[in-house]
Amino acid sequence: MIKIKPLIVSLLISLGGGLIVGFLTRNSMSVYDDIVLPKFAPPSILFPIAWVILYILMGISAYMIYESMSSLKDKALVVYFVQLVINFSWPFAFFGGRMFYLAFVILIILWVLVVWMIKFFYDIKPAAAYLNIPYILWLTFAAYLNLSIALLN
Prior knowledge:
Distance between the termini: 51 Å
Largest sheet: none
Number of helices: 7
Shape: elongated
Number of domains: 1
Strand content: under 5%
Helix content: over 70%
Number of strands: 0
């Protein structure tokens, strides 16, 4: 049985955080259009669409963990919240500060945290882990793109 209130709170945490970061960095998003991009760089319109989908999947997976009876639940949710904080810091380094190498390091740290989170989630509820596979794939691509941008600029 789905509990609507905790699900909405979980979605608000991930989507709301992403929206706040997007709002705070909105004036620096033009950086992407002003830098040298690798040939495989997607158009900038793709990023908000991808992140909305990923934040929804993250929110649903966190809700599934929150509702579990596992003794690992609290540790898993701590890792989840830490990775969200790191996730939300990336745009400030990349767009706000044009610190492309620092942004790449942040992405590597984030990638490790998300792998750890997926492992925790899998041990508690495999479906919650599977919902984060697109996230880790996107982060892998983002790290490759970020490093390419750092090298070109």
